[in-house]
Amino acid sequence: MKTSKLHLLAISFLVGLSITACKKSDNTSNTLTGTEVTASQDAEAQDAQSDNVDQSVDNIADALEANNFSALKSTEVGGPTWTISSSDTTTFPKTITLTFATDTTINGETFKQTGTITIVVSLTQNKWPWRNYIKRTITFSNFKTENDSASFAVNGTRVMTRKEVSISPAITPNNFLTLTSLRLSVLDSIKSNMTFGITCGSFTGSFTRDVNRTRQAIAHFEKIASTRIWHQVYLKDTLIFKGSVTGTNLMDSTYSRVISENNPITFTRCALLVPVISSGELTITRDTPKGTKEAVITYQKEECKTLVTVTTSGGKIRQFERRVNRLYKKWW
Question: Is the pLDDT of residue 222 over 70?
C-alpha cells in the first residue's frame, strides 16, 4: 500500500516528539540564559510542525483540484479512505472526507492514525475560471497519530480564501499574440483556529493557534523578443501573520505567544528569492514556579537572514541570527 504525504509527515513529527519532547526540565532563574532563546526556537519549531500538517492537507486538495476532482473517489489510497461528493468542476460546494483508521510500521515501531479530515471546496463568486475564486474550509475532527509512548492530535478549522487574482493588461483573443509584458497579482487569506494536543509518556500538553495570514504575490513577466516564450523579471511576495498561540507545554507551564497588532510578523523574499522574516514583534509569556516570565522577540531583516532579538521583562537581551527553512506555498 502506498503511504500518503500526510501519513508520513504526522508520523515523522511523532518520531521527533518521542526523541526530544519527553525531556521535562525548566530554568526558573530570572537571567537570560539559553532558556528564552530556546523558547523562541521551540515556538518556531512548533509553527513548523503545524505548517507541516497544514501543507500536507493542502497538497491533497491541490492534487484533487489538478485532476478536476475526478480521481480518488471512494477509494483508499495511502492510508485514509476517501469520499468526494461530486467529481466535477461545475458542482460547488463539494465535500471531500478523509477517514483514518490505519496502522503503519516504521523501523519496527507501530504508529496508528485515527479521526477524520473534511475539506469543503466552494467558490467566493460564481465565475470562471473557478480556480481564481476558490475557497477551502478544512476541519480536523480528532485527527490523531500515536504510538506506544506519544501521540499528536489535531482539532479545529482552517478557512483559506482566494481574495483576488488580477492580470494586467487583461488578456483577450485579440491581444494575446501581441502582448509583450504582463503583471500578475494574487491575494490569499487564511484564517486558522486549531488545537493541537500532545502526549509524551506521562506528560501532556496542548496549544491553540488562532492566527490570520494574508499573502500577496506580484509577478511581472516579459516576452522574449520574436518568440512566444515568457520569462519572469520581477517578483514581490509578502506574507503577514497576526494572532496568538496559547497552551500548556510538557513542563506543565501555561504560556502564550501574541503577535503585535502594530508590528505583525512579515515574511518577504530576499535577493536570493528565499523567504525571510523582514519585521515583526512577538511577546511570549510563561508561568513558572517563581512567577510569570515574559520575553519580547523582535525580527529584523539582514540580507537573506533574520536578526532575532530576545528581551526579557528584566531587561536582559540576547541576539542571534537565523534562516527560514520553509518554502512558499500557494495556500500558506
Answer: yes
Residue with cell 506519544: 150
Instruction: Please determine, for residue 74, whether its predicted confidence score (pLDDT) is greater than 90.
Output: no
3-class DSSP state of 247: strand
Are 233 and 189 spatial neighbours (Cβ–Cβ below 8 Å)? no
Domain locations along the chain: 5-17+25-322
How far apart, in whole angstroms, are the C-alpha atoms of residue 262 and residue 191? 19
* pLDDT tens column, 104-121: 777 777 878 899 999 999
> Which is it for the CA torsion 27, 31, 35, 39, positive or negative?
positive
Length of the chain: 332
- Residue 152 C-alpha cell reads as 499528536
CA-CA distance, 223 to 261, in Å (whole number)? 41
Closest CA to 207 of 247, 244, 169: 247
Q: Is the pLDDT of residue 29 over 50?
A: no
Instruction: Kindly indicate the confidence band of residue 32, based on its pLDDT and cuts at 50, 70 and 90.
Output: very low
- Give the H or E element holding residue 221: strand 203-223
Cis amide bond preceding 93, omega within 30: yes
CA 9 from chain centre, in angstroms, equals: 13
The residue that leads in pLDDT, 159 or 78, is 159
Share of the chain above pLDDT 70, in %: 78
102 touches 80 (CB < 8 A)? yes
Contacts 24+ apart (CB under 8 A), 67-71: 69/94, 69/121
Residue listed under C-alpha cell 510542525: 49
